[in-house]
Amino acid sequence: MALAVATHCPYCALQCGMTLRELPSGKVEVGARDFPTNRGGLCQKGWTSAELLDHPDRLRTPLINGEPATWDEAYALIVSKIVDIQSSHGRDAVAVFGGGGLTNEKCYQLGKFARAALRTRNIDYNGRFCMSSAAAAGNRSFGIDRGLPFPMADISTADTLLVVGANVAETMPPFARYLTEQRQDGGVQIVVDPRATATARAGTLHLQPTPGTDLALALGLLHIVIAEGLVDQSYVDARTTGWDQVRASASAYWPARVEQITGVPVSDLEFTARSLARGRSIILTARGAEQHSKGVDTVTAFINLALALGLPGRPGSGYGCLTGQGNGQGGREHGQKSDQLPGYRKIDDPVAREHMAAIWGMDSGDIPGAGVSAYELLDTLGTSTKALLVFGSNPVVSAPNAGHVTQRLKSLDLLVVCDFVLSETAAIADVVLPVTQWAEEDGTMTNLEGRVLRRRALRRPPPGIGTDLAVIAELASRLGSGVRFDSEPHTVFEELRRATAGGVADYAGVTWERVDAEDGVFWPCPAVDRAGTPRLFESTFPTASGRANFVAVEHRPVAEEISIEFPLYLTTGRVLAQYQSGAQTRRILPGKVFVELHPDLGFAEGEMVRVISRRGSMDAPVRLSPTIRQDTIFAPFHYPGAGRANSLTVDALDPISRMPEFKVCAVRVERV
User: Which of the residues 324, 362, 385, 497 has an alpha carbon 20 to 30 A from that of 15?
Assistant: First the structure.
């Protein structure tokens, strides 16, 4: 293997370029790389990422019921259990749960494994907890789901930037430089967040709504745009449909009413609407707006605002979503979602099924239909679902109503986890398979702007450690699927190119060689002699009419309102040093759980408290913040055990995306 490689960070969807170098001592050193997205910058997580490669917690042998075993013993047990379960309970009794951090090759192969080897409809992934609301909204408004439909460089050129529910200063610090450049160039920057985060404090204006009221906020901004004659009517007439219904629905959200719902002053609403209408403007949403039981409608309302102002398709303007997980974009394009086939095809589309059947070498009628969403799947464990195979996810920490999910996982006849450390989910598994880390395998990732990138292996994995692709191929072979599964990443990617050809997310023209030569290739890219597509919507939208769709939406309350018994809103999120469930980052920088709340609630700095919801509780020390809303508390969701924030969160789901309402539930705080 090489002594040094150019690759990308293993964490968030910014996918910062970095170099890895193996020193004579065997230690791996992280270096800066001048890649277009991060321009040499890395955050704390990126700089320390190589420390996990040789961490003492690294799994080095399969485990059966917590005891070391051989690979053959592990495979034999898994296959015999799957065969017995499917014989007794049907093919759908075995399920697969994937992750938004897996490479494109793994995502593709995992979806293929579920449908062509297990022949189960039950596959979904943790991206359902991350990107599903923005994806559903983008699909129905634009006909396509790509986080940023423009290159990141556009952000620094916007006259006005509206950031809704994102704290990029902590979650993806190298991205924050685009916000800094935008402000330094005289741009207006408005941040919507119940907390005065580092991102909010740096902006021109901070809007601090009641949790769960972003939808009303967006409708109020659109009302002002209409009332003050700021609509780009020529754009609306030429490039959209459905405007009349949306205009009528917005009439009910006059500024005073929206102030009453959201707590945001009328003057701030007016300033925001007028700023967005004054030139090039970009509206960005993230999990704070999307992780709600009305997340799709909330994102849709901000898309409606962008369309009314004529923003999408214009340089330095538009609507975009800040994808969270490392391959959150590619992870939802290639078949991990319960209702999708590769290329963002719908699984109930007969043409799509025929296309995939031809590539997989099977009858289209043998491809299962759509399964249920991630939380709904987890909720069936131990009842209709008897076995679960988990790749790249840790639902014991990351799922909503996590105490309930943990009990469901424990009730399975078979739980198999592929991971490189003993995550909280792996710790309760029947079989754990140790797999490679990012610096030990080749593959591709797709970042938040739709740029397909190359991940390169620096070194071989330690003895006794396999790859996810090899695990999938071996299990498929032992199950006698009759369908070929390759374990070599480049070969899998070549099949993925054929599988996505002609789909919405078309990778047919993307090759590893082009990715190397062009600093990544933006999809859609339908042919090798065609350029990628950094900016979508310049002349048309990929809808049946070629126009974007306005969709009328109405504000509605959160699933669980505060009450006398539970008088505070809980909202959750990430902190600088940690990533997702923390299974990786907590081993490098352990950090400490905390609960952030307003001093007027009467607790002291550092005091241990118990936060209680209708589902469970968490214990943590207090961190006082005079800038958080008095009716709101915040807790990071990275920690397990007594500090697990998702013990509290509600499992109410968006009716379209099936996104759980992570971002708001009713709680009370007591002294321990």
Answer: 497
Q: What is the CA radius of gyration of the chain?
A: 24
Cα gap 37→205, rounded to integer Å: 26
Q: How far is CA 141 from CA 137, 277, 502, in A?
A: 6, 20, 21
Question: Would you say 574 and 397 are in contact if contact means Cβ atoms under 8 Å apart?
Answer: no
Phi, psi of 252 (to 5 degrees): -80, -5
Q: Give strand pairing partners of 282.
A: 161, 318
36-62 residue pLDDT tens: 999 999 999 999 999 999 999 999 999
Tell the residue number behind the tokens 């709600």, with chain if given. 292
Write out pLDDT tens, residues 129-155. 998 999 999 999 999 999 999 999 999
How many residues are listed for the chain in this entry? Answer: 672
User: Which pair of tokens denotes residue 256?
Assistant: 């005073």
114 secondary structure, DSSP code: I
421 strand-pairing partners: 58
Answer for the pair 476, 113: CB distance below 8 angstroms, yes or no: yes
pLDDT digits 0-9 by tens, 488-515:
999 999 999 999 999 999 999 999 999 9
* Residue ranges of the chain whose pLDDT lies below 50: none
Q: Across-strand partners of 522?
A: 451
Q: How far is CA 391 from CA 124, 155, 263, 582, in A?
A: 11, 34, 42, 16
The type of residue at 312 is P
- Helices (H), ranges, 232-349: 233-239, 243-250, 255-262, 266-276, 287-290, 295-308, 328-331
Question: Is 86 within 8 Å of 66 (Cβ atoms)?
Answer: no
Mean pLDDT, the chain, rounded, equals 97
DSSP state of 131: T
